[in-house]
């Protein structure tokens, strides 16, 4: 047992908290964080006090998922994990990628593994963590190795399990967890066998060209051609809604209501309809009240008395507003009128389209786009010679952002190099600035929850944006059929849902492999390729080594290798190649190696023994360090 004297002398050891102590101590909570803190005695702990990213999810720890016999001890170690720091000596033994303290996502993933291990121990009859023997550790490690997971994942899990022992050592009242055997014997023998697959590469699949083409076309169409009509309709709808809320019940209002509805009822005409979660298709009460100048109560009473809910379900009709339609598609108006009930859905699709344009045409990570605020892309002032500089986007980045102590900074930091915005991106930002108030997050949950109207904090989450993209695709396909443009539908992607991270990956793929294709949009991609190659402070450069350039350069290398391989196959098949560079191309193709790319660091590469170290593929000033396996193909 650690003595009181040694506890005071050791800054890494934490005293046992009281039941009413906060789960997250003040030291780790930023001044701007407003998320509620849980108590140590609670069975559900919120990690919100550690989450400052606008788009970050508020993760929780459910201690009820831990077996009752082990819950008290696991609770104690979890609290140390949340509030403690690993010793620097322990970190040095683990390698350069480890930190004394990690971010919320890593904590959550580590806790998930601890909970799994606790449930496994409980099934083995272990009721105290100190009863976990070397045989238990080895058996569980063997279970992980045989589970079918990759070697890299197994390595991460075993290191998280080692952290269970390491953090227990930092408690003033440790549980006495034994040191895992791989900490002394080496971890290699506890991992799955090495496969021939290269590790570290980005396995995110780019979107199929037949998918991103129409998706981007319709997104830009929504932003640049339809947004004026949608936002005007949204303003008119809100005006009508406010009018209804302020209208009092009067005889004049009832008379106007009868004058509006009775001719529609008696003539058999469609009635303005909406879809209610409780009642299905029913009369559009707010719209009717606004058009007639009556109160909502009068509309409800009148509709109930005449059974208009059932009648409207039989004869549903639109709710046209007096808003001019200016947008065109194939030279024709895209709507006959703007509909009161459709408008919230159109505003939601407009915000989603703007997100796609920003994410795809900048190469931002989703978390970076979620942190954008109104005013992030001001109009530039003319240069002294009268030329206009490019629009720049000021944003935050989050990946690998740490403070001077090496701790993850959940709030991120402003990028030293701003993004360059081409006009479709600028237009998308301007549209979002009309949806949210000045200074607000461009993807504020409170202002983009158009349909539900729930008061949420922070930015739209990745899961929500992902669902909105799928809904937008369904809408696009309906519109394409309605306008007689079946060739502009978005087909299903071979690799599944259109996740946000796939947009960034797709941009790198298309710039490297199809700079002049359909999705390139000609001038826009020409501009981006120039900016990317320049590596200037006004380009798309990231000061992070593993930024967008890393993905682009890997794709460029893969594209070059694939092109040469096709050239080699063509010459082997007897095809003739002509042109000034034909001889050089043929010679190069006959010796081209197959390429399996993976990003790595100089420090990591230096750890590989020279006898086993593959020759790096480099182009001075252009490519980051790459690790690849070369195998000369037979000619």
Topology:
Blueprint: H1 4-9, E1 44-46, E2 60-62, H2 68-83, H3 88-94, H4 104-123, H5 134-145, H6 151-168, H7 182-185, H8 209-246, H9 251-267, E3 271-276, E4 280-283, H10 285-292, H11 296-306, H12 308-314, E5 316-317, E6 320-321, E7 328-329, E8 332-333, E9 338-339, H13 343-362, H14 366-370, E10 391-393, E11 396-397, E12 413-414, E13 419-421, H15 423-435, H16 445-448, H17 462-482, H18 500-513, H19 523-534, H20 548-572, H21 582-590, E14 593-594, E15 598-599, H22 602-606, E16 626-627, E17 631-632
Overview of this structure, please?
The protein has 635 residues and is mainly alpha-helical. It is built from 22 helices and 17 strands. Strand 7 (328-329) and strand 8 (332-333) form a beta hairpin. It is elongated, with a radius of gyration of 30 Å.
What features would you highlight for this structure?
635 residues; mainly alpha; three-stranded mixed beta sheet; two-stranded antiparallel ribbon; 22 helices; disordered N terminus
Provide the spatial order of strands within the biggest beta sheet: 4-3-5
Report the sheet-strand fraction.
5-15%
Query: Quaternary status of these chains?
Result: single chain
Structural class: mainly alpha
Shape: elongated
State the total count of DSSP E strands.
17
- Give the low-confidence spans: 1-8, 514-560, 577-582, 584-605, 610-635
Percentage of residues in helical conformation: 40-55%
Alpha-carbon Rg, integer: 30 Å
Number of helices: 22
Q: End-to-end distance, in Å? A: 70 Å
Main sheet specs: 3 strands, mixed
Q: Residue-averaged pLDDT, rounded?
A: 77
